[in-house]
Design a protein that fits this description.
By secondary structure, the chain is an alpha/beta fold. The chain has 15 helices and 12 strands. The strands form 4 sheets. The chain has a 5-stranded mixed sheet with strand order 3-2-1-4-9. A 3-stranded antiparallel sheet has the order 5-11-12. Strand 11 and strand 12 form a beta hairpin. Helix 3 runs parallel beside helix 4. The structure holds guanosine-5'-diphosphate and magnesium ion. The site of guanosine-5'-diphosphate has 13 residues, from strand 1 and helix 6. The site of magnesium ion (MG) has 3 residues, from loops. One of its GO terms (cellular component) is membrane. GO terms for molecular function: alpha-1,2-mannosyltransferase activity. It holds the Pfam family Glyco_transf_15. One of its GO terms (biological process) is protein N-linked glycosylation.
Length: 402
C-alpha cells in the first residue's frame, strides 16, 4: 500500500515538472510575429508581394495599406440654404430622437451639415443637449416655448374642454384625453415657425422621435424646394380620424368666406374634397415629416387661417391635429405645383412606411426598406389622389404594390 502511494506521488510530481517545463520553454520562444499596432520597427512585410512594402517600412501604422481608389468627397461642396431641422421634444424623448438624428445624419445631413433647432415647453436638460449636440453635424440650438404658446387661450371654456376629454377617453380616441397633446398640435399648427430661434431661417425639415430614413439622399432637398418654387412637401398621406375633427371643415369654410383673397387660384381642393368643397374627405399630408417654407407659414394668409381656427376652439373642444391643419392650408392657399411629393425620401413613422416605388432607384440609393411595406398605393393612402389631381404618371411598378 505504502509502496503504491509513493509510486503515485512520483507520477504526480513528474507530471507537474513536465507542465512547468512546457510553460517555461514556450514563453521563451521569441514573439516577433506579434508586432504591436503602430510599432513600425518590428514589422516585416508578411508576404513578398505586398504592394507598398517599401512605404510600409517607414510610415507609422504601416500594418495597413492605403486605399488607392478615389473615394467620393466626405461632404458635398457648395453653398447652403438658409435652412434648419426642427424637432419638438421632451427631455424624456432623448433616446428616441437620438435614433432619428442618426438616420437623418447618415442618409443626408452628414453631407450638408445643416443646423438643428430643438423646441420644448420645458427647459432642455444637459443630458438632452449633450447627446443631441454630439449627433448633429451642424449647429444645435435649444429653445423654450413661451408659456402663452403652450396654454389655453382665454376664450376657451375649460369645463367644456374637460368634458370633451372625458367623452373622448370613453370612446378610446387616441390622445383623446390628453391636454399636452392638444397643446402640441396647436403649437405645431400655429407657433413653431414664430419661435425666435426659427426666425433666422427660411426653410425647415421637421423630424420627430423614432423616425427612420431608408435611402441615401445625395442632393440638397432645401435647394430643390427653392429652385422648384415648392413651399410644402410630404412623403405619406392618409385619411384623418374623423372623430378628432368633426367641425374642422366648417371652420375652414368660415375662413374662406371671410378671406377669399387668401385662396390660391390653382389650389388642391380636389385633393381635400370630393364635392367641390362642400365636405372634407379627410385626406391630409402626414406632418411628422415636412420640408417647407417658413415664410409661407409666417405669411398673412397662413396666420389668418390659424388665428380663425384657433378662435373656433377646435384644438381643445375637439382634437384637431396639426397635420390636417397644415394640409388644408397648403391645399387651399398654395398653388398645386407648390406642393411636392418626395417619392425619393424613404421614410418611416410608426405605423406607416413610404418606400420609393421603382427598384432601380432603391438599388442606386442603397435603400433598406421592403417595397412590400410601401403605404402609397394602399386604399387608406391619399397619394393616388395627389397623382391624379396633378395629372402625374404614377411610378412604374406601382400596380404591383397595390
Ligand atoms: N416638448 C414637448 N413635446 C411634445 C409633447 N408631446 C408631444 N411632443 C412632441 O411632439 C411631436 C409629436 O408627438 P408624438 O408623441 O410623436 O405624437 P404622434 O406622432 O402623433 O403619435 C414629437 O416630436 C414629440 O416629441 C409635450 O408634451 N412636450
Ligand atoms: Mg410621432
Amino acid at each position: 500500500m505504502a509502496g503504491s502511494q509513493r509510486y503515485m506521488r512520483y507520477i504526480v510530481f513528474a507530471l507537474f515538472a513536465l507542465i512547468v517545463f512546457y510553460f517555461i520553454s514556450s514563453s521563451s520562444v521569441p514573439s516577433a510575429s506579434w508586432p504591436s499596432y503602430g510599432d513600425s520597427t518590428s514589422i516585416t512585410p508578411s508576404t513578398p508581394d505586398t504592394p507598398n512594402a517599401a512605404v510600409s517600412a517607414v510610415t507609422p501604422h504601416a500594418s495597413t495599406t492605403p486605399n488607392e481608389k478615389t473615394l467620393p468627397p466626405a461632404t458635398i461642396p457648395g453653398d447652403r440654404m438658409n435652412a434648419t431641422f426642427v424637432t419638438l421634444a421632451r427631455n424624456s424623448d432623448v433616446w428616441e430622437i437620438a435614433k432619428s438624428i442618426r438616420h437623418v445624419e447618415d442618409r443626408f445631413n452628414r453631407k450638408f451639415n445643416y443646423d438643428w433647432v430643438f423646441l420644448n415647453d420645458d427647459d432642455f436638460d444637459d443630458e438632452f443637449k449633450k447627446i443631441t449636440t454630439a449627433l448633429v453635424s451642424g449647429k444645435t440650438k435649444y429653445g423654450k416655448i413661451p408659456k402663452e404658446h403652450w396654454s389655453f387661450p382665454e376664450w376657451i371654456d375649460q369645463d367644456k374642454a374637460a368634458k370633451v376629454r372625458e367623452e373622448m377617453k370613453e370612446k378610446k380616441i387616441i390622445y383623446g384625453d390628453s391636454v399636452s397633446y392638444r397643446h402640441m398640435c396647436r403649437y405645431e399648427s400655429g407657433f413653431f415657425f414664430r419661435h425666435p430661434l426659427m426666425l433666422d431661417y427660411e426653410w425647415y425639415w421637421r423630424v420627430e422621435p423614432s423616425v427612420e430614413l431608408y435611402c441615401d439622399i445625395n442632393y440638397d432637398t432645401f435647394k430643390f424646394m427653392a429652385e422648384k418654387k415648392k413651399k410644402y412637401s410630404f412623403t405619406l398621406s392618409l385619411y384623418e380620424y374623423v372623430e378628432t375633427i368633426p367641425t374642422l371643415w366648417d371652420a375652414t369654410k368660415n375662413f374662406t368666406k371671410h378671406y377669399p383673397q387668401h385662396i390660391a387660384k390653382d389650389n388642391s381642393m380636389k385633393f381635400l374634397s370630393d364635392d367641390g368643397g362642400e365636405t372634407y374627405n379627410h385626406c391630409h399630408f402626414w406632418s411628422n415629416f415636412e420640408i417647407g417654407n417658413l415664410n409661407w407659414l409666417r405669411s398673412d394668409a397662413y396666420i389668418d387661417f390659424f388665428t380663425s381656427l384657433d378662435k373656433a376652439g377646435g384644438f381643445f373642444y375637439e382634437r384637431w391635429g396639426d397635420a390636417p391643419v397644415h394640409s388644408i392650408a397648403a391645399g387651399l392657399m398654395l398653388n398645386k405645383d407648390e406642393i411636392h411629393f418626395f417619392n425619393d425620401i424613404a421614410y418611416y413613422h410608426v405605423p406607416f412606411t413610404h418606400c420609393p416605388t421603382g427598384e432601380q432607384y432603391r438599388l442606386d440609393h442603397k435603400c433598406s426598406c421592403n417595397p412590400k411595406d410601401n403605404f402609397d398605393w394602399n386604399g387608406y393612402s391619399c397619394t393616388s389622389r395627389f397623382y391624379e389631381m396633378n395629372n402625374m404618371q404614377k411610378p412604374a411598378g406601382y400596380e404591383k404594390e397595390q
